[in-house]
Specification:
about 350 residues, Rossmann fold, Dihydrodipicolinate Reductase, domain 2, 2 domains, eight-stranded mixed beta sheet, six-stranded parallel beta sheet, 10 helices, disordered N terminus, disordered C terminus, GFO_IDH_MocA-like_dom, Gfo/Idh/MocA-like_OxRdtase_N, Gfo/Idh/MocA_Oxidoreductases, nucleotide binding
């Protein structure tokens, strides 16, 4: 279905000059949207103009604390002449809001998942490409310093397997999605990023033990570069745990994404002994790094670290893991670049 921008909001795309702050707003001021607004209010090179939410009391509370305006919805945001908008509204609203923002000539960062369906995600990507604006998807885990340390440790290695655990208690408020879309989509993105290849085979096991939607998921994958991957995620664990284990031909890397400790086991010997070292992990707030990357892309026109196309690809794999879903369509064979990355 065609979607048109609110009357009077469409304008030509003009990127902000280097000496001008990026005028930005946030729509959807729940927990994640409030964090986006907080970080943006502190970033040099950004001007947090306003926050928008139907809950005017919440929007005004955040606006008063951060020293910006509060408005009722994204259309009111667009009337303020912004360069960019962060969409942190509920997932089912991502598609109509993002299309309005893009049609108005604004760049947009859409929280993950990019949309409720693959088709809606592709429409957002196509609209941004046609309008010439920046589209980024908020897979913030890529900017976790421990994740980046793991990525650096396995660079040029011959990868064999990846195992990711992301578990914890039920969220304080239940959304209209289960653990696959809420949590596992992070790790699907990481698997594709770590391997530099797409996911070819999916073997999901899910269960709704307590909730209406799946609250347990054990997901197995094979990538086009031959790497085997496994995701264990649930809302039934009384504590949070976020770990990544990567096996290569020459080393075994373990990352704790909460404590941000990364350990590398290497130098395997015939007697079964090996060496271990703790890798340096930078101190940085992932959300700040993500937003800095987005602002840089808005200014320069370069692709952001997590593109709309990547967000849609990870969403497609995640949806294929849901009960009754058709398998995701992956590339029929690996590319030469993927073979080089796999073999090191």
């Amino acid at each position: 279905m065609a979607h048109t921008a609110a009357p009077g909001t469409e304008r030509a795309r003009v990127r902000p000059k280097d000496d001008q702050p990026v005028r930005i707003g946030v729509t959807g001021i729940g927990i994640m949207g409030s964090n986006h607004a907080r970080v943006l209010s502190q970033l040099p090179g950004a001007e947090l103009v306003a926050v928008a939410d139907p809950d005017q009391e919440q929007a005004q509370r955040v606006a008063n604390f951060l020293g910006c305006q509060a408005v009722g919805d994204h259309r009111a945001l667009l009337d303020l002449g912004l360069d960019a908008v962060v969409v942190a509204a509920p997932t089912h609203l991502h598609h109509p809001i993002a299309l309005d923002v893009i049609a108005a000539g604004c760049s947009v960062l859409v929280e993950k998942p990019v949309a409720s369906t693959v088709e809606e995600g592709r429409e957002i990507v196509a609209a941004a490409r046609e309008k010439g604006v920046t589209l980024m998807v908020g897979h913030v885990e890529r900017f976790n310093p421990a994740v980046r340390a793991v990525k650096e440790a396995i660079r040029d290695e011959s990868l064999l397997s990846i195992a990711i655990t992301r578990v914890g208690p039920f969220p304080p408020r239940m959304s209209n999605v289960g653990v696959v879309i809420d949590l596992a989509v992070h790790d699907i993105d990481l698997i594709r990023w770590f391997t530099g290849s797409d996911i070819l085979e999916v073997q999901p096991q899910t269960s709704a033990a307590i909730a209406e939607r799946e609250d347990i998921a054990l997901l197995q994958f094979r990538t086009t570069s031959g790497v085997l991957a496994h995701i264990n995620t649930n809302w039934l664990t009384p504590f949070k745990a976020r770990t990544v284990h990567v096996a290569t031909r020459k080393k075994y890397v373990i990352g704790d994404l909460l404590t941000r400790q990364v350990t590398e086991h290497f130098d395997y010997r015939p007697d079964g002994s090996y060496s271990t070292r703790h890798l340096p992990v930078a101190y940085a707030e992932p959300l700040r790094a993500e937003l800095e990357n987005f602002l840089s892309a808005v200014r320069t026109g370069r692709a952001p670290e997590v593109t709309g196309e990547e967000g849609v690809s990870s969403l497609e794999i995640a949806i294929s893991c849901l009960p009754g879903s058709a398998p995701a369509k992956a590339a029929p064979s690996e590319t030469a670049a993927e073979k080089r990355r796999a073999l090191g």
